[in-house]
Amino acid sequence: MTTVSMTVNGKPVSAEAEGRTLLVEFLRDGLHLTGTHVGCDTSQCGACVVHVNGEAVKACTMFAQEAEGAEVTTIEGMANADGSLNVIQQAFQDHHGLQCGFCTPGMVMSAAALLKENPKPSEAEIRDYLEGNICRCTGYHNIVKAILAASGQDVGAIAAE
Amino acid sequence: MYAFDFEKPSTVADAVAALKAEEAQPLGGGQTLIPTLKQRLAMPSKLVSLTGIDEMKGVCVADDGAVCIGGATPHAVVAREAAKSYPALASLAANIGDPAVRNRGTIGGSLANNDPSACYPAAALGSGATIVTNAREIAADDYFQGMFATALDEGEIITEVRFPVPEKAAYMKFEQPASRFALTAVFVAKYADGVRVAVTGASEEGVFRWTEAEEALSSNFSPDAVAGLSVPADGMIGDLHGTPAYRAHLVGVMTKRAVAAAG
Ligand SMILES: Cc1cc2nc3c(=O)[nH]c(=O)nc-3n(C[C@H](O)[C@H](O)[C@H](O)COP(=O)(O)OP(=O)(O)OC[C@H]3O[C@@H](n4cnc5c(N)ncnc54)[C@H](O)[C@@H]3O)c2cc1C
Ligand code: FES
Ligand code: FES
Fold this sequence. Notes:
Chain A is α+β, with helices and mostly antiparallel strands and 161 residues long. Chain A has five helices and five strands. Chain A is elongated, with a radius of gyration of 16 Å. Chain B has helices at residues 12-18, 33-38, 75-81, 87-94, 99-104, 107-113, 120-126, 140-143, 211-219, 244-262; strands spanning 5-7, 24-27, 46-49, 59-61, 67-70, 130-133, 137-139, 158-163, 168-175, 182-191, 194-200, 208-209. In chain B, helix 3 runs antiparallel to helix 4. Chain B has ten helices and twelve strands.
């Protein structure tokens, strides 16, 4: 066991980790931040996406020790300072971008990474960016709408399929 | 996963020393190795992470014009930083997997793994790249030795890959939509001294050069030049996504598309 230290959602944290402890295990089991989900555990579904030093990564496919000293942001760090939903989360609610909600933490984290890189993405760019995020409920349509809305763009252009 | 020790050196020399331990293995972005460990298909005693080695990261252009990429450079960085110097390579990197995979997965890991359906092997072979390791320089033509097999020795790490920049090039991937790897993909590059055509995703031997197409394209760089050519279905991969004959057909189709895209 080694003590691993990083900053998670702005707070410095330390916990014990083995070499094989995954970042997602460190967050969920070590820090009890269970908002980050494990869907597939095989780097396919994106439910576990978090930001490490500002970049979207699959927390099930990175070791905790690789994030030593890093700035990590999880879904728990996304709300506004007063606890209200941030603009992306609010857009998911407004546009019914979730049903069971299992994929949603990863979707929101991926959406945030996309909007940081590309503040006004097209529908095609959104769909392309979400390639590694799988949703079994929504059919993606409302997720794409939510992200367009969160970027301040008109969602009317997307047909209500 | 079986238990292992974890080390994160900050120089190539320290990484090479750490890899001398029995059953030690390098860890690049982990996008292939971590799933393999979870399935208990590998049992290293120690993982030596290469992601903290600054001298193995980044994209630059050498005096002879070659684009040099550090072995631990993630795909996303290649997509951004090689966009001007080698657009076909940058666009290949930009279409590997998904954004999260591209933020972690590295060129060295991809070439060391030599998955028969991976993208980078086609770029390296198609560009006649040089694979630079801690010990030597290996020409791409000597490096790829069949499915998941390379010229790398135990404990040898890819520190850099050098790509001579062609006059024209393009990579065309027929994507396997679930895995996002190549069902069949072709990298075509036109150099002053001839054309190179590298095919991935098709052969049971892994990435290969389609020499017949290279000859035809070297005298006439147009999609028509390869219209009458075909590769035998013998030795092509057959699985639920496509038969050997289907893949052999795709080789021709993707080559034509790549030539058209290269312009
Ligand atoms: C969902 C998903 C989709 C993907 N889609 C694609 C795709 O479309 N196209 C594609 O080409 N790939 C794809 N990949 C694979 C991805 O590109 C991997 O990142 C890559 O194959 C391995 O690189 P890595 O840095 O993650 O290596 P790791 O997984 O860390 O290592 C792989 C192997 O290489 C060795 N190694 C690592 N770095 C070095 C080095 N510098 N020198 C020597 N040995 C080294 C390791 O010991 C290990 O044996 C995908 C992966 C996932 C999870
Ligand atoms: S749980 Fe990490 S990608 Fe599915
Ligand atoms: S809302 Fe259920 S998986 Fe996406």
